[in-house]
Amino acid sequence: MSERLLADGIVVVHFFFIAFVVAGGFLSLRWPRLALAHVPAACWGVLIEITGWICPLTPLENELRLAAGQAGYSGSFMAHYLLPIIYPSGLTREVQLILAGALIAINLGCYGWLIRRRRRAGQAPPAMPKKPVDVAD
Hints:
Layout: H1 2-30, H2 35-51, H3 57-67, H4 77-86, H5 93-120
Protein backbone atom coordinates (compact mmCIF):
# COMPACT_ATOMS: atom_id res chain seq x y z
CA MET A 1 0.00 0.00 0.00
CA SER A 2 2.73 2.49 0.93
CA GLU A 3 4.71 1.69 -2.24
CA ARG A 4 1.62 2.39 -4.33
CA LEU A 5 1.08 5.73 -2.61
CA LEU A 6 4.74 6.64 -3.09
CA ALA A 7 4.51 5.72 -6.79
CA ASP A 8 1.38 7.85 -7.15
CA GLY A 9 3.16 10.69 -5.35
CA ILE A 10 6.07 10.43 -7.78
CA VAL A 11 3.62 10.72 -10.69
CA VAL A 12 2.21 13.91 -9.17
CA VAL A 13 5.67 15.38 -8.52
CA HIS A 14 6.79 14.38 -12.01
CA PHE A 15 3.74 16.00 -13.59
CA PHE A 16 4.23 19.27 -11.68
CA PHE A 17 7.93 19.29 -12.54
CA ILE A 18 7.08 18.98 -16.24
CA ALA A 19 4.45 21.71 -15.89
CA PHE A 20 7.09 23.91 -14.21
CA VAL A 21 9.58 23.20 -17.02
CA VAL A 22 6.99 24.21 -19.61
CA ALA A 23 5.40 27.18 -17.81
CA GLY A 24 8.29 28.40 -15.63
CA GLY A 25 9.46 30.96 -18.19
CA PHE A 26 6.03 32.59 -18.10
CA LEU A 27 6.00 32.49 -14.29
CA SER A 28 9.43 34.12 -14.26
CA LEU A 29 7.99 37.10 -16.09
CA ARG A 30 5.91 37.75 -12.96
CA TRP A 31 8.46 36.54 -10.39
CA PRO A 32 11.93 37.01 -11.92
CA ARG A 33 13.80 35.26 -9.10
CA LEU A 34 11.95 32.07 -9.98
CA ALA A 35 14.29 31.90 -12.98
CA LEU A 36 17.03 30.68 -10.62
CA ALA A 37 15.07 27.43 -10.20
CA HIS A 38 13.49 27.34 -13.63
CA VAL A 39 16.56 27.67 -15.87
CA PRO A 40 18.23 24.48 -14.51
CA ALA A 41 14.88 22.64 -14.62
CA ALA A 42 14.30 23.72 -18.23
CA CYS A 43 17.84 22.68 -19.18
CA TRP A 44 17.19 19.26 -17.63
CA GLY A 45 13.91 18.95 -19.55
CA VAL A 46 15.56 19.88 -22.84
CA LEU A 47 18.44 17.46 -22.16
CA ILE A 48 16.00 14.60 -21.51
CA GLU A 49 14.08 15.36 -24.72
CA ILE A 50 17.10 15.86 -26.97
CA THR A 51 19.03 12.81 -25.76
CA GLY A 52 16.00 10.54 -25.48
CA TRP A 53 16.99 9.62 -21.93
CA ILE A 54 14.41 8.52 -19.39
CA CYS A 55 14.00 10.69 -16.31
CA PRO A 56 15.21 8.91 -13.14
CA LEU A 57 11.77 9.34 -11.60
CA THR A 58 10.26 6.90 -14.13
CA PRO A 59 12.28 3.80 -13.11
CA LEU A 60 11.76 4.73 -9.45
CA GLU A 61 8.01 4.86 -9.96
CA ASN A 62 8.11 1.52 -11.81
CA GLU A 63 10.09 -0.13 -9.00
CA LEU A 64 7.61 1.09 -6.42
CA ARG A 65 4.68 -0.13 -8.52
CA LEU A 66 6.26 -3.56 -8.89
CA ALA A 67 6.95 -3.69 -5.13
CA ALA A 68 3.27 -2.87 -4.55
CA GLY A 69 2.21 -5.73 -6.83
CA GLN A 70 1.17 -3.46 -9.68
CA ALA A 71 2.39 -3.59 -13.25
CA GLY A 72 5.18 -1.23 -14.20
CA TYR A 73 5.45 0.20 -17.69
CA SER A 74 8.12 0.56 -20.31
CA GLY A 75 9.26 3.85 -21.78
CA SER A 76 9.18 7.29 -20.28
CA PHE A 77 6.75 9.15 -18.05
CA MET A 78 5.69 11.31 -20.98
CA ALA A 79 5.04 8.32 -23.22
CA HIS A 80 2.98 6.60 -20.54
CA TYR A 81 0.98 9.44 -18.95
CA LEU A 82 1.16 12.65 -20.96
CA LEU A 83 1.37 11.66 -24.59
CA PRO A 84 -1.88 9.68 -24.55
CA ILE A 85 -3.50 12.94 -23.43
CA ILE A 86 -1.63 15.26 -25.79
CA TYR A 87 -1.12 12.99 -28.79
CA PRO A 88 -3.25 10.02 -29.81
CA SER A 89 -0.21 8.27 -31.34
CA GLY A 90 2.97 7.15 -29.57
CA LEU A 91 6.09 9.10 -28.80
CA THR A 92 8.58 9.18 -31.64
CA ARG A 93 12.07 10.63 -31.77
CA GLU A 94 10.82 13.39 -34.07
CA VAL A 95 8.10 14.35 -31.57
CA GLN A 96 10.68 14.50 -28.78
CA LEU A 97 12.87 16.84 -30.83
CA ILE A 98 9.87 19.03 -31.69
CA LEU A 99 8.96 19.22 -27.99
CA ALA A 100 12.55 20.15 -27.12
CA GLY A 101 12.59 22.84 -29.82
CA ALA A 102 9.28 24.25 -28.61
CA LEU A 103 10.54 24.30 -25.03
CA ILE A 104 13.71 26.12 -26.07
CA ALA A 105 11.79 28.65 -28.20
CA ILE A 106 9.23 29.38 -25.48
CA ASN A 107 11.87 29.92 -22.84
CA LEU A 108 14.17 31.99 -25.04
CA GLY A 109 11.18 34.20 -25.79
CA CYS A 110 10.19 34.54 -22.15
CA TYR A 111 13.69 35.22 -20.87
CA GLY A 112 14.50 37.54 -23.76
CA TRP A 113 11.41 39.56 -22.92
CA LEU A 114 12.28 39.54 -19.21
CA ILE A 115 15.84 40.73 -19.86
CA ARG A 116 14.67 43.46 -22.25
CA ARG A 117 12.01 44.61 -19.77
CA ARG A 118 14.54 44.78 -16.93
CA ARG A 119 17.03 46.72 -19.05
CA ARG A 120 14.37 49.24 -20.04
CA ALA A 121 13.44 49.70 -16.39
CA GLY A 122 17.09 50.24 -15.46
CA GLN A 123 17.20 47.08 -13.40
CA ALA A 124 20.26 45.58 -15.02
CA PRO A 125 22.44 43.69 -12.55
CA PRO A 126 24.80 46.02 -10.70
CA ALA A 127 28.42 46.03 -11.80
CA MET A 128 31.03 44.65 -9.44
CA PRO A 129 32.95 47.33 -7.51
CA LYS A 130 36.48 47.92 -8.80
CA LYS A 131 38.05 48.26 -5.38
CA PRO A 132 37.03 46.87 -2.01
CA VAL A 133 34.79 49.12 0.00
CA ASP A 134 36.14 50.04 3.43
CA VAL A 135 33.39 50.08 6.05
CA ALA A 136 35.36 52.50 8.26
CA ASP A 137 35.25 55.31 5.66
